[in-house]
Amino acid sequence: MGRHTRLESRTAANVASAPMTESARIEVEPDPVPIVLILAATLRRAARTPKLAAAIGHLHGNVALRSTVDPQAATMRFGNGGVTVVRGVSDDADVVIAADVNTMADEKPPKPRVTGAARHLRLALTVGKLLEPPHGTWQQEAERFFTFATTRPGVPKSMRVVCTDDGSELTLGDTPVEYELHGSEHALLNVFCGNSVLGQDLLDGKIFAVGKLAHLAELTGRSLAWILGGE
After folding, report:
1. Domains along the chain with CATH numbers
2. Is 123 within 8 Å of 152 (Cβ atoms)?
3. Which of 96, 136, 221, 230 is the most exposed place for a label (fewest CB within 10 A)?
4. Average of per-residue pLDDT across 104-132
5. What average pLDDT does this structure show over 18-32?
6. Which residues on adjacent β-strands are paired with residue 42?
7. Cα gap 200→123, rounded to integer Å
8. Three-state SS letters, the chain
9. Residue 31: strand pairing partners
10. pLDDT(101) > 90
C-alpha cells in the first residue's frame, strides 16, 4: 500500500498458517485498485482462523481505511454474511481509520486516528483484529511464500534465509543455494506474510540479500503478487 505497500500483522508465535482459502465471503469491486486487493488479501489471511472467519460473516457496518500520506482509501462493507471491499471512503462509513500506510508494518508504528469507534466499538475492535491476522513462525511463513513464489519460472530454485536476531536459518528448495535473505524476525515476517515488498525492504536496508539481480527481480514480482492476494 502506498510506496511500501504494507499492512501490519502482529506476531502470534507457533500459529500455523493455512492455505489462502476462507469460509467467509470476501469480495472486491470490479476492476479493483491495489489498496482494495491488499485489504481483501489481509481479510482472507484473517479468515484462515475460524473465529475471525465467523466474525467476518456476522459483522454489520462499514469501515474505511484512509491513507494520510497519499490519496489511497478503501471501505470494507460488512453484511449479508461477508464483506465487500471497494475504493474510497464511503459516505456511509461508520468507522474511519486514518493512518500513514508507509509505516503500518513498522515494528512500532504510529497509532492511527480512528473516528466513529465510540459509537461502533464492537465493529472497530473486531476490524482491528481482522487487519492484524495471526501468523506462523517466520520459518512457516517462509515456506508458504517460497512454495507460492516457485510456481513461476525465473525464481531461484533454492533459498537460504537467516534471522539476524538469533542466527537461526532455513534452507528452502534443493541445494546448492541460489539466493540468500538475511533480516530480523520482524523484517522476515513482513516479507513472508505479505506486509511489505521484498525489493523495497532491500532498498530500505531492512533486509539483506546475496544473489543474482535477476532472481531479486523475480522474487520482488512474486512478493508483490503475494501482497495483492494473487496466485
Report:
1. 25-130 (3.30.1050.10), 138-227 (3.30.1050.10)
2. no
3. 230
4. 92
5. 76
6. none
7. 33
8. CCCCCCCCCCCCCCCCCCCCCCCCEEEECCCCCHHHHHHHHHHHHHCCCHHHHHHHHHCCEEEEEEECCCCCEEEEEEECCEEEEEECCCCCCCEEEEECCCCCCCCCCCCCEEECCCCCHHHHHHHHHHCCCCCCCHHHHHHHHHHHHCCCCCCCCEEEEEECCCCCEEEEECCCCCEEEEECHHHHHHHHCCCCCHHHHHHCCCEEEEECHHHHHHHHHHHHHHHCCCC
9. none
10. no
pLDDT bin (cut points 50, 70, 90) of residue 105 is: confident
pLDDT tops 70 at residue 20: no
CA distances from 116 to 89, 159, 181 (A): 13, 46, 42
Least confident span in 5-19, 105-119, 209-223: 5-19
